[in-house]
Amino acid sequence: MRLGRVVGRVWSSAKTDQFEGVKLLLIQPVDAQGAAAGRSLVAVDAVGAGAGETVYWCRGREASYAMFPSEVGTDAAVVGIVDSVTTTGSG
Q1: pLDDT digits (tens, 9 = 90+) for 44-71
Q2: Which of 14, 23, 30, 74 is the most exposed place for a label (fewest CB within 10 A)?
Q3: Where are the domains of the chain?
Q4: What is the CATH superfamily name and number for domain 2-81?
């Protein structure tokens, strides 16, 4: 899993049936300190995250499991909302 920040929402009027009622978020990957770390991407929202929230997300085939039992063909899913991040040491 990776950290990210919700920077927007994606709306689509033309989509496959499997995405009906599925909330799509624009997320910016971030590091443990909250600094941008990579390009923004679209992810399905499995937890009801909102704008500005720090989230954790997964990518790849496992991302579709977050929407179970629905079958949603996705490669990125927000699966949790972060309350805090604590790091230890330099790594």
Answers
A1: 999 999 999 999 999 988 888 888 877 7
A2: 14
A3: 2-81
A4: EutN/Ccml (2.40.50.220)
